[in-house]
Amino acid sequence: MRELSVVGGGVIGLSIAWRAAVRGHRVTVFDPDPGRGASWLAGGMLAPVTEAWPGEEDVLALGEASLRRWPDFARDLAEEGVDPGLSPHGTLVVALDSADAGNLEMLAAYLAELGRDVEQLTGREVRRAEPGISGSVRSGLLVPGDLAVDNRRLLRALKHAGDKHAVGFRHETVTGFEDLEGDVVLAAGAWTGRLHPALADAVRPLKGEILRLRPRRGCLPPPRRTVRAMVEGRPLYLVPRDDGELVLGATQYEAGFDETVAARGVRELLEGAERVLPGIAEYELVEIAAGLRAASVDTMPFIGELGEGVFAATGHHRNGLLMAPVTADAALAWLDGEPLPDEIAAAAPARLSGRFSKERM
What we know:
361 residues; alpha/beta; FAD/NAD(P)-binding domain; D-Amino Acid Oxidase, Chain A, domain 2; eight-stranded mixed beta sheet; six-stranded mixed beta sheet; 17 strands; 25% strand; globular
């Protein structure tokens, strides 16, 4: 049994803490408000294929490796007492104009080259799959292998599982880790760059607004599956929840550590969503918030040893929920002195050559 201090109580930190505690290690999580932050505001898409683009093959491979782990991860978590709400309905990507349709064709061709399972749909077929979609949608891609998860149920499940296995929670902000007990995992999301000199310019905050809506009486129901689109060059996603809510996101821009909601971002999301799903204009708006993703310098997260006794698990960008299982597996392998999963090789912090030594900082 080893002592482990996890800095950060989002989905990555809580997943690592739970898995390590199950293995018998003594774990303490340091976070002023565990289970909140960017993870609380996530859309919940587990969709590496529809995030894919030429030049990011390593990110796609890592995402798919984690996606394969998700059914077992969710089942194990449900067996701890709280079901995280995994949805198997896939993703529908839609195009609103000729430029978007051309981009979808390029994406379909690229994924076909990689051997990924996608189905191209006409506008009529899109509306047959999801009747509430706008008549102006020209075409679509159906990706049946994508999953989604209710991020808030997931966080509650992870916190419950951690409590069940005696994970300690210290409700405080860590500014340095030299005095923490045992081995240390740095999983503080956008703030991780402040905790280690090697990550100071490699991990940064990327702001995004997100909305939650609920259909009122007489409204068309939300789509059954995740719907993604590009509206005037801006990405948009609509992710349904089992309780009837619909998560709408997300803007994305550089704003430092500012977490206030910008009116422009809310307007862009609502206008874009109405073009894709016209009935959403009559929905009740139940929540508006902004969060900070942990962006890395090259879109690939940092998963691996930073120095003796210090492990990085950060920089997951839009893929924190998706990559939680593979990141937790890597951290646990490191903690137990086992080989790390082959899939995380491209995410090794060693690509920041020269930024850190093998000695604990």
